[in-house]
């Protein structure tokens, strides 16, 4: 097993399942005549980020995680999405980007330094494995699961099997 | 880097941060005179699991993940916790259990078969890396993040930095 096998499939599994969750949420809005913008603007608490931003951040942590681990140029994805369709396209674009990496690019990456922003005016440097396990992946799952929680809280009929991509 | 380094620190980081989240939720209940049982019984939707069960499941996925990856006997932790204190003890016990594993026990585990229950009457077999990345870790983060979401939705002043263990 290579480090690539520890990194890339984990991001792809969840990016794909997020497309499935958004598809069910979109259908739920259509069936109940709910303004899609209301669902995408929903939050679990007023000072938390809304559903649309949770999706954008999950996308960012996957794409930038791969870029930082392979010392590639960071992808630029401005957060302009306002509809379910645009958010699903953002996820599809992120999937294509993550799939564009080759296993060779991750060779030895677990032991190489990764420097990343850790707040507005400071950076942190960790070994690749530690950056992946302690920073990138928990952030990625945090936003993916919070997106699931917002949709679930709003009555979308989804569950952990959808989250895991098993449905 | 060994497979141990990819597995054990990830579980420990979040088990520790869950203790921190529960400590803040407990203080919030005391300050606002909220019955702790109400907070621990809160859900994001009526057919979702309550906060106490999200913590128990996060504990289970960490402990059983380590056991299954090392082909050890599964630990028995009956879900009897009813208070913040008992749930924090459950997490502390899980941390001790996860810490009891030695790196040697994980040697080669990424390529060994792991058989685990995948529903009430069937099992699934995956290689260790795949079991960890596609099943154990996403389930673990799912329950940890959902626990965070329930507390956050109920007004506990926590955020992603607490979730990541940075506070």
UniProtKB/TrEMBL annotation, chains A, B:
Pfam families: DUF1993 (PF09351). This is DUF1993 domain-containing protein. SUPFAM superfamilies: DinB/YfiT-like putative metalloenzymes. It comes from Bradyrhizobium manausense. InterPro entries: DinB/YfiT-like, DUF1993. It comes from the Bacteria. Gene3D superfamilies: dinb family like domain (1.20.120.450).
């Amino acid at each position: 097993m290579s480090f690539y096998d520890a990194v890339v499939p984990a991001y792809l599994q969840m990016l794909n399942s997020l497309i499935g969750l958004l598809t069910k949420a979109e259908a739920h809005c259509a069936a109940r005549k709910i303004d899609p913008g209301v669902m995408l603007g929903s939050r679990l608490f007023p000072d938390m980020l809304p559903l649309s931003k949770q999706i954008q951040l999950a996308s960012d942590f996957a794409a930038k995680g791969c870029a930082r681990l392979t010392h590639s140029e960071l992808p630029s994805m401005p957060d302009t999405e306002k509809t379910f369709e645009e958010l699903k396209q953002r996820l599809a674009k992120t999937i294509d980007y993550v799939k564009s990496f080759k296993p060779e690019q991750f060779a030895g990456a677990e032991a190489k330094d990764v420097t990343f922003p850790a707040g507005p005016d400071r950076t942190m440097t960790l070994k690749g494995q530690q950056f992946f396990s302690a920073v990138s992946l928990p952030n990625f799952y945090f936003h993916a699961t919070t997106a699931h929680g917002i949709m679930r809280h709003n009555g979308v009929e989804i569950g952990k099997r959808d989250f895991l991509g098993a449905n």
